[in-house]
Specification:
Chain lengths: ~325, ~500
């Protein structure tokens, strides 16, 4: 078999996906044996201009991590799509927007004012009230910056995506399994998430009984026992709605699942799925009591249900005009 | 006016860009380091439950998520006014020491190492991690890989995940360790001490015994006489997890020593319209532009800065190495930024010694790893030393513990102004009369690399090369000359 051409790119990301790729350890040598890595800014040579010169469709596989926040990232998404036969949204940011997608509760002006305005929550010295500009005249010439958009988009809201690899970041064993699937030509149907189709609960070693919740606890309110299901103990564990594949790592250190793998097949909206799963464990028929249980235990619904998936959700973002979006579901829903 | 764009630095693609302007005589008029992105954590964390902050802010950086996770966790202690039990504090510092030793190892061998181990004048094709392996042998490469693998395994064992742990809570951590885990941690910690000693010996043999390298380190291209910042314990020894922030002047005198919660009296941030990243500086000295000296508020927060700001290291082997560094390079403070690589190795040794100290502490397997908060949450600052500089998280909440304001000063951001100055200085030394030396590319690369900058973590990369492209343009922007290295 001739060597395939592989590219990896990062957009609005933290670098954790790159570290996760290095986490496949000695398999990186197998990757080097099976693929020519034609573009990977983090780890190898190569320039954007070199990619621009490649024939369209000449890259066999592109693993693209990070969301799309700036004009430069949008251009790179379009370029990598054009040049690649198979484009994978790699990791939570490209897949669902991830935590940086929570910025969609606000707009550029609000974010810039918070970060750069004198006397704001930070303490910049900015008497001339500067904001970063696409173009700035300095004494020696002109300096340019990519445009920062109001909304962070997922990769498939920007270009057509062939496959998704979930996780923040994806686990090394899943990365390797996906690469093997590509090499062996055993990819699932186009548009699929590469991974198992069960929930984190199915991988969790904790003991499960019937769940009946009279009160949801914040993580700092109780010390859960180390063996019983965390949701049964009243902690908001997202495992019930979250795709498996990690091995239930967080519950094993006594921490609730935070939902980084996103939803299973057939679920359109992760947050709606998690909401309905949690609603079904509330042990009350009294609307007033139910209201109280939810309000006390889940003070930030959007940040709880859409922690990783707001940008990809049916809500997508909060009001663009909001100057002080506190991030409630009600607030988001008004403009969705 | 001519312009040289290092545009983009490939490893910083999307994450960093340098523009160098030449005057009519062809000498450097100015240099700008631009950071072309922002994600806005300080805004979108508003409205979130504050206990989510260790997990949310870890996503600032996937290379050092442990640092953000820990700063955030300490900020939660302060927000909830809860003092973690001794076992909790020790577990956190143990975890943090493992992280530090692992992260510094990656930097030294994959990035800094090639310049010294293989040599700054070696053929470009050899100046990478593969060249390092060729020079020192597979045996050493195996040691480096083991050190990294051990570190990540232990981080996963304690914190739940190898990248983005889910472990810190106000008043402690979510789970402790048992005796069997403790034994593994101790054993791997002893290996880490040997690895650190080995690395310092390697530095000795390959760098310090080579007069050319010593000349490079102590030469005038990589000097900036700035203030230095670092966290110290009660004896003014470096500490990564907790203590007071000490700032010393370019002449080595104590400028300030303060509780991290008071940071806003000492540090302010400058905004420029041509970059998304702010420039912190010492408030009481003031912003005088991109210049060094006693009158300029520019400071550095790096491994070398931590050494300069401290009186010593708290563990015996690291302290002996600390003294030897200052004796060798002519006393304190050291302003030669390339010595940062040496300081980084000394910090690996300190982290490994501390790792074993804590792993053998009788309280480390205690069951008392969490204290529950009892007071109403308000406001709090959490501060640790990240590998790349002092890291400060500051949160304000309402009475339910919902975040109302956030301020963050991230490790590399401290060094935004000094890195810009180092780039400019390297350019000034090499560009005269419009002639650009081939060496500029590597000299700029080395100026950057000493800081281990983490603009999107771009330089934490395997082959240890930073492909550069310098375009020299005339006043109308026409391309006059193009110089490249490591490019396609």
């Amino acid at each position: 078999m001739s060597k395939g051409k592989l590219a990896l790119y990062w957009a609005a990301s933290c670098g954790g996906c790159e570290i996760a790729v290095l986490g496949i350890d000695t398999h990186i040598l197998d990757v080097a044996a099976a693929f020519d890595i034609v573009f990977w800014p983090c780890a190898t040579d190569g320039k954007v201009r070199d990619v621009e010169k490649m024939p369209d469709g000449s890259i066999d596989l592109c693993l693209f991590n990070g969301g799309i926040r700036t004009s430069e990232q949008e251009y790179m998404a379009q370029l990598m799509r054009r040049k690649s036969k198979v484009l994978v949204a790699f990791g939570s940011c490209a897949h669902e927007g991830c935590i940086p997608g929570l910025a969609n509760l606000y707009n550029r002006k609000v974010i810039f004012d918070t970060v750069y305005k004198e006397g704001s929550s930070t303490f910049p010295e900015n008497p001339k009230d500067f904001r970063p500009q696409p173009s700035t005249d300095v004494p020696e010439g002109k300096l340019s910056l990519p445009i920062f958009y109001d909304t962070l988009k997922t990769l498939d809201q920007t270009v057509e995506v062939d496959y998704y690899l979930p996780g923040c970041p994806p686990e090394a064993k899943n990365i390797w399994a996906a690469l093997v699937a590509v090499l062996e030509g055993k990819l699932p149907p186009k548009g699929s998430v590469i991974g198992v189709n069960t929930t984190v609960c199915d991988e969790c070693p904790r003991k499960r009984n019937e769940k009946k919740i009279k009160k949801f606890h914040r993580t700092w309110e109780i010390i859960p026992d180390e063996e019983t299901c965390l949701l049964e103990q009243g902690l908001i564990c997202c495992g019930v709605a979250t795709r498996a594949g990690c091995g239930a790592l967080c519950p094993q250190v006594n921490s609730p699942c935070i939902g980084c793998h996103g939803p299973n097949e057939g679920v359109d909206d992760y947050g709606a799925r998690l909401m309905s799963a949690l609603a079904s464990v509330i042990d009350s028929q009294d609307p007033a009591e139910i209201q109280r249980i939810i309000e006390e235990g889940i003070p930030d619904p959007v940040g709880t249900f859409y922690r990783f998936s707001l940008a990809a959700s049916q809500l997508r973002r909060g009001s663009k005009r909001a100057v002080n979006g506190a991030g409630t579901v009600k607030h988001v829903a008004q403009e969705a | 006016m001519k312009r040289i764009s290092i545009d983009p630095i490939t490893r910083l693609e999307g994450h960093g860009k340098i523009d160098i302007f030449l005057n009519e005589q062809g000498d450097v008029a100015n240099a700008y380091l631009q950071i072309p992105e922002l994600r806005g954590f300080e805004q979108f964390c508003v409205g979130r439950p504050v206990e989510d902050m260790p997990n949310l802010t870890a996503r600032i950086c996937g290379v050092c998520p442990e640092a953000h996770h820990m700063a955030a966790t300490k900020a939660l202690d302060a927000v909830f006014h809860v003092d973690p039990p001794p076992t909790a504090k020790k577990l956190r510092e143990l975890f943090y020491s493992i992280f530090f030793a692992t992260d510094h190892t990656t930097h030294f061998y994959a990035l800094g190492g090639p310049d010294f181990v293989v040599g700054p004048t070696a053929p470009k094709a050899q100046r990478n991690i593969l060249g390092v392996i060729a020079k020192v042998g597979m045996d050493v490469a195996g040691k480096v890989l083991k050190m990294r693998r051990d570190g990540h395994e232990l981080i996963k064992m304690m914190g739940g995940r190898p990248v983005h742990p889910n472990w810190g809570l106000p008043g402690g951590v979510s789970r402790g360790i048992n005796q069997e885990q403790r034994k593994t941690i101790e054993q791997l910690g002893r290996d880490a001490i040997e690895f650190a000693k080995f690395s310092l010996k390697l530095f000795d043999d390959l760098v310090l015994k080579n007069t050319e390298y010593v000349k490079l380190i102590t030469g005038d291209v990589y000097v900036h006489r700035t203030y230095n910042m670092g966290m110290v314990d009660a004896n003014n020894c470096t500490n990564f997890y907790d203590g007071k922030i000490r700032v010393t002047s370019p002449s080595g005198k104590e400028h300030a020593k303060y509780d991290p919660a008071d940071y806003r009296q000492y540090v302010a941030e400058r905004v420029e319209p041509w970059t998304y990243l702010k420039f912190p500086y010492l408030k009481q000295v003031g912003w005088k532009g991109f210049v060094d000296g006693e009158d300029s508020g520019v400071y550095k927060a790096t491994p070398l800065s931590r050494c300069n700001a401290a009186d010593g290291m708290a563990t015996p082997l690291a302290n002996a190495e600390y003294k030897r560094m200052y004796e060798t390079l002519g006393g304190k403070p050291i302003h030669h930024t390339l010595a940062t690589h040496w300081a980084r190795l000394i910090e690996i040794l300190y982290a490994a010694e501390r790792w074993v100290e804590l792993a053998t502490d009788p309280e480390i397997t205690g069951k008392d790893y969490r204290g529950l908060p009892t007071q109403t949450p308000t406001e709090g600052v959490g501060c640790v030393e990240a590998p790349r500089g002092t890291l400060t998280h500051h949160y304000w909440t309402d009475s339910r513990g919902i975040v109302t304001k956030v301020n963050l000063i991230v490790g590399t951001t401290n060094n935004n102004a000094p890195i810009s100055m180092s780039v400019k200085r390297a350019a000034e030394k090499l560009i005269r009369g419009g002639k650009v030396s081939e060496g500029l590319l590597n000299m700029v690369e080395m100026a950057f690399r000493a800081y281990d900058p983490c603009f999107g973590c771009a330089t934490h990369s395997l082959p240890g090369q930073m492909p550069l492209e310098v375009n020299i343009r005339g006043p109308q922007g026409q391309l006059l000359e193009r110089l490249t290295q490591y490019v396609g």
